[in-house]
Amino acid sequence: MPMAAPNSWITCPCPNPQATLRLFCFPYAGGGALTFRGWEAHLPATVELCPIELPGRGMRLREPPFDRLAPLAEAIVEALLPCLDKPFAFFGHSMGALLSFEVARRLRRLQRQPGQLFISGRRAPQWPDPDPPIHALPEAEFIAELRRLNGTPAAVLENRELMQLLLPTLRADFAVLETYGYEPAPPLNCPIAAFGGLQDPDVTCEMLEAWRQQTCSGFSLQMLPGDHFFLHAAQPMLGQALHRALASLISL
C-alpha cells in the first residue's frame, strides 16, 4: 500500500513503494528536511527515508514556526498517522531527538510506536538544561551563540539579509527547547539507540547514557568523531550504524 498523499510535514525524496519500513527523520534547530539529503544511499534498500519538514523552513519558509514543543508534537502526530501503514522508526538529532521522543510518547497513547528510536546529539529529557536560555537574547548575542554552537555556516551568519529571514525560526526552535518541561512517564517499549559526538562540548556521554532510563527494551550508545554536528562530519559512519540497526529491525 503506498504512503498516503503527501502533506507539507512529511517529505519523501526517493519514494519506495517496495519498502517494508519507513524512517522518519527529525531535524535539529534551524534545520529542515534537506538536512537528510542523500541519506537514502546509506540505508537498506527496503527502507523509505521520510524527513520531517517543520514550518518556517524549506518549502514552508513563509509559515510561522512553532515555539512550544507540545503543540508541535501534536501537529506532527496528526500528520504522521496516515503514513503509519508500515512499520516505522524515528531518527532525531538535537531538537529533533527530543521532538521524536515526545511524538513517540503521544503515539503510544494511540497504540502505535516506532520499531526503534534513534537519538542523536541530545541529552536525555529528564536531564536538567545546564545552560541559560538564549532564544530571547538581543540579536548580536543570539548570533554569537549560534556561532559558538557551530551549526550555522559562517557565510550565513554574516549575511544580514539572510539572517533576518532565518532568525524568527531559529529563535522559535530554541524556545521549543528552552521552554520544554519533562513530565515523567513509563519508559517506551521500543529500543533506543543513542549517538553522540566525541568532541561535543555540550552533550556528554553521561547525558546520552541517561536515555537508557527511557526504554524498557534494548539500549545502545555509540560515540562518533565530531562536535555537536557530527551527523554531517561523521555521516558515513552514522549511516553504517543506521544500516546495521535497520537491517536487524527489518529481519525481526
TrEMBL record:
<keyword id="KW-0560">Oxidoreductase</keyword>
<dbReference type="Pfam" id="PF00975">
    <property type="entry name" value="Thioesterase"/>
</dbReference>
<dbReference type="GO" id="GO:0016491">
    <property type="term" value="F:oxidoreductase activity"/>
</dbReference>
<dbReference type="InterPro" id="IPR001031">
    <property type="entry name" value="Thioesterase"/>
</dbReference>
<dbReference type="InterPro" id="IPR029058">
    <property type="entry name" value="AB_hydrolase_fold"/>
</dbReference>
<feature type="domain" description="Thioesterase">
    <location>
        <begin position="22"/>
        <end position="236"/>
    </location>
</feature>
<dbReference type="InterPro" id="IPR012223">
    <property type="entry name" value="TEII"/>
</dbReference>
<comment type="similarity">
    <text>Belongs to the thioesterase family.</text>
</comment>
<dbReference type="GO" id="GO:0008610">
    <property type="term" value="P:lipid biosynthetic process"/>
</dbReference>
<protein>
    <submittedName>
        <fullName>Linear gramicidin dehydrogenase LgrE</fullName>
        <ecNumber>1.1.-.-</ecNumber>
    </submittedName>
</protein>
